[in-house]
Write a structure and sequence with these properties.
This protein has 221 residues and is an alpha+beta fold. It is built from 8 helices and 9 strands. It has helices at 3-14, 32-48, 61-72, 80-85, 134-143, 149-164, 178-181, 204-214; strands spanning 19-21, 26-28, 88-90, 97-108, 114-124, 128-130, 146-147, 168-177, 192-197. α5 (134-143) packs across α6 (149-164). It binds guanosine-5'-triphosphate (GTP) and zinc ion (ZN). Residues 108, 110, 148-150, 177, 179-180, 184-185 line the site of guanosine-5'-triphosphate. It catalyses: GTP + H2O = 7,8-dihydroneopterin 3'-triphosphate + formate + H(+).
Length: 221
């Protein structure tokens, strides 16, 4: 059997778990053609870093890494505004809705090394509320791309503001950047906080309530 056929079989076998459910439709997460192309590049990378891509432990690594990379960037295939629109409900609730401690895993666009932490997202409805799970879903849709933390924060805010048109949106992200811990400046405990607000959250009282609800970490306590 040729090595090309063997590689195709490896990819086929790996396709079994290549689908995720996004809540309302099943979509292909992995693209076989892209996996094949990416794997070729990763084989070259393995050679360039001084490894032997044909040794047993590394034989399937290029396909595995390709699969991981497609997963880590699958946000490009998602439309966050559509995700929100799919579960908007008319409701007269006018108080703050806060989803806090949403795990965030993203990759910095400068080094393609992970940054990770938590997002806290709040809005004040203006006639419509949104299905709660859709908030972490849009966080993921933007996080699973090459990002900077600042843009990630603003994109989440703008998506909610433009789609739901609430009385205000607040987004805070606290994250650790592995490009600052495992390389570069090598600071192990530094945490970066970014925030963005619209509408009612620009006012001191509402913003203070939001900060109180997400905890005192932002005050350095
Ligand atoms: N503002 C911002 N900077 C980031 C983010 N992720 C990584 N960076 C920074 O991007 C910068 C890239 O700077 P460069 O000087 O071009 O790259 P570098 O030589 O690898 O820099 P060092 O990390 O300082 O070694 C670094 O300061 C990183 O800390 C992010 O989400 N937001
Ligand atoms: Zn980085």
């Amino acid at each position: 059997m040729s090595s090309e056929i063997v590689k195709d079989m490896i990819i086929e076998n790996m396709m079994d778990d290549y689908e995720i459910k996004d809540g309302y439709q099943k979509r292909d997460l992995y693209n076989q053609k892209t996996i094949k192309k990416l794997a070729g590049h990763y084989r070259e990378i393995l050679k360039l870093i001084g490894e032997d891509p044909t040794r047993e432990g590394l034989e399937k690594t290029p396909e595995r890494v390709s699969k991981a990379m497609q997963f880590l960037t699958h946000g490009y295939d998602l439309n966050p505004e559509d995700i929100l629109r799919s579960a908007m409900f008319k409701e007269d609730y006018k108080q703050m809705v806060l989803v806090k401690d949403i795990e965030v895993y993203s990759m910095c666009e400068h080094h393609m090394i992970p940054f990770f932490g938590r997002a806290h997202v709040a809005y004040i409805p203006n006639g419509y509320i949104v299905g709660l799970s859709k908030i972490p879903r849009i966080v993921d849709a933007f996080a699973r791309r090459l990002q900077v933390q600042e843009r990630l924060t603003t994109q989440i805010k703008e998506c909610i503001q433009n789609t739901l048109k609430p009385l205000g949106v607040a987004v805070v992200i606290e994250a650790q950047h592995m490009c600052m811990s495992m390389r570069g400046i090598q600071k192990q405990n530094s945490v970066t906080t970014t925030s963005d607000f619209t509408g009612a959250f620009l006012g001191e009282k509402t913003r203070a309530e939001f900060i109180h609800l997400i905890g005192s970490r932002l005050h350095g306590n």
